[in-house]
Amino acid sequence: MENIAILTGGDSAEYNISLLSANTVLNNLNKSKYKGFIVHLKENTFQVLFEGKWIPISKEDFSFTLKGKKIFFNKVFMALHGPPAENGEIQPYFDNLRIPYTTCNSEVSSLTFDKYKCNKKLSTLGFNCAQSIIHEKGVNIEIDSIIKEVKLPCFVKPNGAGSSYGISKVNKEAELVNAIHIASKHDDEVLIESFVDGTEISCGVYFDGTNIIALPSTEIVTENDFFDYEAKYEGKSKEITPARINSLLTLMIKKTSISIYEKMKLEGICRIDYIIQENIPFIIEINTIPGLSEESIIPQQLKTANIRLSEFFDMCLSNIN
Q: What is the C-alpha to C-alpha distance for residues 271 and 257, in angstroms, rounded to an integer?
């Protein structure tokens, strides 16, 4: 039986989402093959939850002591959204200890977490992305040049944060400065990108050991102006799986997602978000550690594909060594 560290916590605004994802993984692990442990990472300190108590983990070898015996982990299931997992900071630690994990390596994670650099890379690979610029925190805000570049309306968002924290849709010139200030609370770099109007679609994609597989797409219909935190986590949206798009677009999204996974050298389960404008899918972002709470998009897509969570998590862990 393998000991699995289900890594959660972190220091970002996505802390609570990470805890929900980790519990989903723990509750759906194949108990005959794996012994799952919730491992909490906060402020560079690891702790493992065992029988209701938190036990410190040694950073030297990622082990903990139970009744005088050292317990080691065979693999890490990454369920930590945001830094230090989704941005690639923690991966070298596990690489050095030769402990495999269920997500992209440090280099790929770092690139995909930087929305601006990721979009530039995707564009060079021939994929469609919104026009965007970066604003550095503390630098004078040149409103005229920003609007000339991306036009109105536009989106202002932290360049390296998830779960729709700090995002604003700017419709008027007068709203731009405040939107930049809101985003800069979450990141020193603020991404300002042109508004792509259309149907929002999300597609899960993974490697099953033989082939790259795209899951049924989800259509996101929000009551709010866009898919913000309230829409995402507080019931202000409908997530419709499979998406209500024609078979040609469905195939295009699947093929595009598989191609992105391959060309960007993604690993594990990823989720790619799109806006379809005039039958052209524009990539919004790549999530390399997507939410796995029972209500999250990936579990919805797996259910539609008739894949049990236990079966899927088993596959995720089997494909790493």
A: 9
Helix boundaries (H) for 170-296: 176-184, 229-233, 247-263
DSSP 36: E
Q: What is the mean pLDDT of residues 285-313?
A: 95
CB 69 within 8 A of CB 37: no
Does pLDDT of 227 surpass 50? no
List, in order, residues 6 or more apart from 195 with CB less than 8 Å away.
130, 151, 152, 153, 154, 155, 169
Q: CB–CB of 36/108 below 8 Å?
A: no
d(CA 232, CA 219): 12
Residue 288 contacts residue 270 (beta carbons within 8 Å): yes
Cα 154 to chain centroid, rounded: 22
Condensed to tens digits (0 to 9), the pLDDT of residues 251-270 reads 999 999 999 999 999 999 99
SS3 234: coil
**Residue-level pLDDT at 224:** 58
First to last CA, the chain: 15
DSSP state, residue 174: G
Contacts of 53 (CB under 8 A, 6+ apart): none
Domains of the chain (ranges; CATH) run 2-102 (3.40.50.20), 109-128+196-288 (3.30.470.20), 132-194 (3.30.1490.20)
pTM metric for this prediction: 0.87
Residues of the chain above pLDDT 70, percent: 95
pLDDT (mean) for 103-128: 95
Nearest to 3 by CA among 97, 75, 101, 66: 75
Beta bridge partners of 200: 220, 275
- The average pLDDT across 175-192 equals 87
- Which residue stretches of 35-175 are H helix? 91-97, 106-113, 115-124, 143-150
Residue-by-residue DSSP string for 275-308: EEETTEEEEEEEESS---STTSHHHHHHHHTT--
| CA-wise closest residue to 283 among 200, 210, 212 | 200
pLDDT in tens, 268-278: 999 999 999 99
